[in-house]
């Protein structure tokens, strides 16, 4: 290559201080996977907790295996704080064996 003596102009950045939001204020859809006892009333109990924390359920899927069911819940947009509060309450239910995962699903 031939050096023409030209130089690249200096890169200029305008940095402005941005406010960092608390994690609890992030809004997203969530994917929640639960391992629960396969018995009547489990979905109703989980739904009541969601309602009490203003977590709107978009979709639910349940797959049974013997006396255990894998319950997948997808939420509508919700802030992280009420979602995490609901997950803590759901995990305390005697019918819930495990909260397998909680994943932010929205972009």
Automatic annotation (TrEMBL):
The UniProt record lists the ACT domain at 31-104
Q: Which InterPro entries match?
A: ACT-like_dom_sf (IPR045865), ACT_dom (IPR002912)
Q: State the organism named in the record.
A: Termititenax aidoneus
Q: Which domain of life is it from?
A: Bacteria
What the entry lists under PROSITE patterns is as follows:
ACT
Protein name, per record: Homoserine dehydrogenase
Q: Which Pfam families match?
A: ACT
Gene encoding it?
A: hom
């Amino acid at each position: 290559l031939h050096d023409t003596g030209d130089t690249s102009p200096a890169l200029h950045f305008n940095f402005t201080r941005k406010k960092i939001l608390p994690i609890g204020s992030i809004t997203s859809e969530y994917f929640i996977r639960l391992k629960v006892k396969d018995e009547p009333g489990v979905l109703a109990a989980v739904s009541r907790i969601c309602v009490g924390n203003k977590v709107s359920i978009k979709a639910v899927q349940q797959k049974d295996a013997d006396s255990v069911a894998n319950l997948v819940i997808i939420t509508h947009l919700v802030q992280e704080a009420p979602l995490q509060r609901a997950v803590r309450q759901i995990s305390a239910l005697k019918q819930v064996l495990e909260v397998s995962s909680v994943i932010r699903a929205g972009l």
